[in-house]
Design brief:
Elements: H1 2-14, H2 20-44, H3 47-88, H4 92-99, H5 103-120, H6 124-127, H7 132-139, H8 141-156, H9 164-196, E1 199-205, E2 210-216, E3 230-234, E4 245-248, E5 257-263, H10 267-270, E6 282-287, E7 299-305, H11 309-317, E8 325-331, H12 340-350, E9 353-358, H13 370-376, E10 383-388, H14 391-403, E11 411-414
Parallel strand pairs: 7-8, 7-10, 8-9, 10-11
Antiparallel strand pairs: 1-2, 2-5, 3-4, 3-6
Helix pairs in contact: 1-2, 2-3, 2-9, 3-4, 3-5, 5-8
Length: about 425
């Protein structure tokens, strides 16, 4: 809110443009630049922000900010061009062609076009048709957009050039956002990987299409990882550098090894089975607030679906997850229940209740409908609920929890939409 107020003050101090469309375009340009700076802070994934709010909440903010950027990237140039067209007495198209010959304006147009491409390909319908690796590579265009946006502001910005104070504020804001991005996405990962020297220690087949990779390294007891968190994993030399996937830890960190378990559904996860022992590993993280640290009640329900059971299995092993635990594991068939033996052993050790909910959803079998959840866990409103799985499952569970009036502070979900 303070930044929005500062933008309004800067806009007022700069004065209006030569006509109304130009004035509106100038204001929308300031909003666009501010929204882009906020988006940089969200994708920086600073540990303090990540631990405080969690990936699911950050994902929601990321989506809202992305849509705001989309509409502002359409409206800002449209109003600016309309203003110049009226001023010069030419058509909108002729003005566009004429101004596009000026490098600063062309840079802004290219940046706006890339924003439209990124947002359109992030819409759910388009997202479902893309592999995670392709979607992730497309989002690397964000860094090109940032570079173009900064250059465009250097040459075209007027509102923040009013005086020294506005220039210090505006470029200070952008320096902070860019610094956060470089710190969270480059400096911290480089330092951690240099320190821990992560390598593949073992590759274990869990089923025909699921594999676990055990990661070894130096001083892993000093890596601030917790059960329920995830890393972005890369395997240099064996996969392309831009291929990074968010895999949760499938076992609680023990200070000696880290374990991830993945199903072969994409180029990265399918290639895990062929990783040689000793292969270098590059990891970003740990990320996520899907941990026992965010519990508010003494008892817990852990709900996992498909391969989304991996952080659930890690949480079940976590000694910090005290109190009575109920585990609901949703799979299409018992054969699809990976890590089931480990879950049963852990449930026996800590006297937890484990329900394997197998079978396809049908009119008479909807295990996550409110009535079914209450039948499985009668005191669910008095427990913390952790849920991780396919998007449809997570959405269904969250909807039922709202209908059962489970307080929002007791609900913890991980969707990985911002992970990339």
């Amino acid at each position: 809110m303070l930044n929005l107020a500062a933008v309004q003050v800067m806009f007022a101090a700069a004065g209006p443009a030569k006509n109304l469309p130009g004035t509106i375009g100038r204001l929308l340009g300031l909003y666009l630049a501010l929204a882009m700076a906020l988006q940089l802070l969200l994708v920086a994934r600073l540990p303090i922000v990540d631990r405080a709010y969690g990936m699911d909440r950050l994902t929601l903010w990321h989506r809202w900010t992305g849509m705001a950027i989309f509409w502002l990237a359409l409206a800002h140039p449209a109003f600016v061009l309309l203003g110049f067209a009226r001023l010069d007495g030419t058509s909108f198209l002729a003005t566009t062609v004429s101004l596009a010959k000026q490098p600063p304006v062309l840079l802004g147009m290219i940046g706006a076009g890339l924003i439209l491409v990124i947002v359109v390909l992030s819409v759910r319908v388009a997202r479902r048709r893309l592999s995670y690796e392709t979607w992730h590579a497309i989002h690397l265009l964000l860094y090109v957009v940032v570079a173009l946006g900064v250059l465009h502001q250097v040459y075209e910005g007027t509102a923040f050039r009013v005086n020294l104070l506005t220039q210090v504020y505006w470029w200070g804001l952008w320096a902070f956002a860019l610094g956060a991005l470089l710190t969270g996405r480059l400096i911290v990962p480089l330092l951690r990987n240099a320190r821990h020297q992560l390598r593949v220690g073992a590759v274990v087949s869990e089923s025909d299409d699921t594999v676990s990779v055990h990661i070894i390294g130096r001083d892993l007891d000093r890596l601030p990882a917790r059960a329920g968190q995830f890393f972005l994993w890369r395997f240099p030399g064996h996969q392309k550098w831009w291929r990074a996937n968010p895999f949760s830890l499938s076992a609680a960190p023990n200070g000696r090894t880290l374990r991830l378990t993945a199903k072969g559904v994409g180029a990265t996860s399918a290639g895990l089975r062929d990783l040689p022992i000793g292969a270098k590993v590059y990891a970003e993280g740990p990320y996520g607030a899907f941990t026992a640290a965010h519990r508010t009640r003494g008892a817990t329900v852990l709900i996992g679906g498909g391969i989304g059971v991996t952080p659930i299995r890690a949480l079940l092993e976590d000694p910090e997850l005290t109190g009575h635990v109920v585990v609901l594991y949703r799979v299409r068939s018992a054969q699809d229940a990976v890590l089931l033996g480990e879950l049963r052993n852990l449930a026996d050790v800590r006297r937890a209740r484990l329900h394997v909910l197998a079978g396809r959803s049908a009119a008479g079998y909807q295990p996550f409908e409110p009535e079914q959840l209450l039948a499985l866990v009668p005191d669910i409103t008095a427990r913390d609920v952790y849920v991780c799985g396919p998007d449809a499952l997570t959405t269904a569970v969250l909807d039922s929890l709202r209908r059962l009036r489970v307080p929002g502070r007791q609900v913890h979900a991980e969707r990985f939409r911002l992970a990339g």
